[in-house]
Write the structure tokens for this entry.
Amino acid sequence: MLKGLVINTQKNIYNVKTEIGVLRCTLRGKLLKNRQDITSFIVVGDEVIVEKLQNDIGIILEICERKTKFCREVTEGNKNLEHIIASNIEQVIIVCSVKNPIYHLRAIDRFIVSAISGGIKPIVCFNKIDLINQSDLESDINYFKKRGFDVILTSVLLKESISELKEVLKNKISVFSGSSGVGKSSLINSIKEENIAKTNEVGDSRKKGKHTTTSSLFYDLPFGGMVLDTPGLRGFRVVDKEDEVKNSFQDIQDLSQMCKFNDCSHTVEPKCAVRDALDNGEIDEKIYKNYIRLMKSLK
Ligand code: GDP
Ligand code: ZN
């Protein structure tokens, strides 16, 4: 028995990276019988226990518990369901563009909430910084830093910033997220260098030339670490939950325990510790306003 990582899925075949190479696996019958939700039963990033049968063929015996979940929201009928795209991702690089198109703080906040709700570390990446004066960004960089989030500044035209991005990605399992046109593909291309291996192509010679429709797949980074490349990233809806919004504004969350009312919305209630802190300048007005806006949008 071997431990492995599901690096890509195709119908009922799962490519699993193990210490002896990539095995093409099916599911053990018993697991098949138990499965309820076919689409999210096994996803890329899942850790599994496999047995090698012959050559590069194997069978998945067991699925290990998921440490994190990278989700998007899908609508079925009138219900909103969470659809797991990948598991065990360590960090989401939330890419936004400082110009063409210009970012909206609220959109970045929603990506943060979505990451936190899956247990994943969000990292805010302001891209295309070659197009503006960095000093114009100060206030919005602080908006995120004050809340405890890492911020990086990138431009595909500035080599130094790409080295910084590589440092962030090194030895981590990451995914890029953000609206379309912000430069995700360009950034991924600039970190790939020439010798990057599409992990799932290793030891898969029989499939050569055949068109395979893959859901998502991992890239091994030449300097250590992996990046998930998922075609479904374009314009997917993020998962919004009240608790996670609150968790992404830690200062407000901490203060709210001192509000008179447990369910204080920090807008009109008397004896509100959050608004007191706002009046005293202990809380940034921008942070407060965006928090209120985000909470309202959930209702
Ligand atoms: P994606 O949709 O997020 O994958 O965005 P793309 O990577 O396709 O980039 C969208 C457009 O922005 C392309 O025309 C890129 O050339 C351009 N772009 C991406 N990164 C940068 C950058 O750092 N600086 C500038 N000036 N343009 C960029
Ligand atoms: Zn309050």
About this structure: Residues 285-298 form the longest helix (14 residues). The two ends are 49 Å apart (CA to CA). The chain has three domains: 2-63, 85-229, 249-298.
